[in-house]
Structure formats: C-alpha cells, structure tokens
Amino acid sequence: MSDVLVPVANGSEDIEAITIIDVLRRGGINVTVASVHDTKSVELARGCKLEADVLLADVAEKMFDAVALPGGIPGAENLRDCALLVDILEKHDIEDALLAAVCASPAVVFGTHGFVVEKQATCYPGFEEGLTGAEYIADQPVVMDGNILTSQGPATSMVFALTVLGNLEGYETAQKVADGLLC
Q1: Are 105 and 85 in contact (CB under 8 A)?
Q2: Quick check: pTM over 0.90?
Q3: What pLDDT digit, counting tens, does each position of 88-116 carry?
Q4: Is residue 123 annotated as a catalytic residue, yes or no?
Q5: Integer distance in angstroms from the first to the last C-alpha of the chain?
Q6: What are the chain's domains?
Q7: Pairing relation of β-strands 49-51 and 41-43?
Q8: DSSP assignment, residue 82?
Q9: Average of per-residue pLDDT values in the chain
Q10: H-helix or E-strand spanning residue 6
Q11: Which candidate in 48, 82, 103, 123 is catalytic?
C-alpha cells in the first residue's frame, strides 16, 4: 500500500483537497492529511472546515511515495511559504517520489521553489507565468513530466487524483475506482 502526504492550509481549494483525499483512499492508499499551520483545523477556500490527521511537523521525517498539493488562494501561498513543506518536497524530489500539484500550486509552490525547471507543466489559467523555467501546456488537464504531475483546477481534480492513484497503484486500480465513481 502506498503512502501519500496531502498538505493542507487555510484557503486550500475545497474540491481539490477533498477529491484528492477521497479518491486516493478509495484506491486503498494510506493518505496522511497534514496541516501546515500550528493547528489541525483548517478552513478551506470556500468555507468548508477540515480536520487534518496530523500537523506537518509530526511527519516531517517520514518518506512518502507521493506528496499531493491542492491549490486555491490563499492556500497555495500558505503552502509556498511553509519552509518545512519546501524541505519535505526537496527531500522527496531527490528520492524521485511523485510530486503532484493542482490549480495554483504548480505555479505558486512548484514554480517558486524550482521543481518545474526544464519540465512540462500546467496550472490554473492566469498563473502560468509562475511556472518558472517550465514549458506551459495549456490544453491538457493533467501533465506529467518525470516525477512531477500537474493539473489545472477544480474541474480537473478527479482526473488528477485518478492519475496520482494510477501512478502509485496501477491502471487497473485507478480504473476500478473511476468506474465506481462513474467516471
């Protein structure tokens, strides 16, 4: 069973955060939802309240098979500004773990901290200038280049989460979950 870290912050996009967590858990993945703040309780961008499993500091030394970031503003900015999360992303990138981000996070987090340099990537339209050093792919809902997986926004969250699942647990598992969700 794969382990995935889903960092969340105040202002993370509701649909993206919940879709990532739900789809991966349906696929049998051990998902750890970690708040980047000093409390487990976060308020998402559209007002949903979410109780994280742990604080990010509680799992800072653990290695995961993937780290999947929801977007949203100011959620992506809160993720970007969390030095501990950036350290975790760097550690996982060195180990070639899957780094996945949707919406604003590919640009705001990955672009700011150099994770998409010389990669193809996508993001929420209007944030593409933040994909520093990347080739912006505008016409694909999900783009994978090496260990970096990016997606455009709330409407692409399902295919994004299923792609994360497929990369970790295989196509058949992802297809089974997709069929159960009527995708």
Answers
A1: no
A2: yes
A3: 999 999 999 999 999 999 999 999 999 99
A4: no
A5: 23
A6: 3-177 (3.40.50.880)
A7: antiparallel
A8: -
A9: 98
A10: strand 3-8
A11: 103
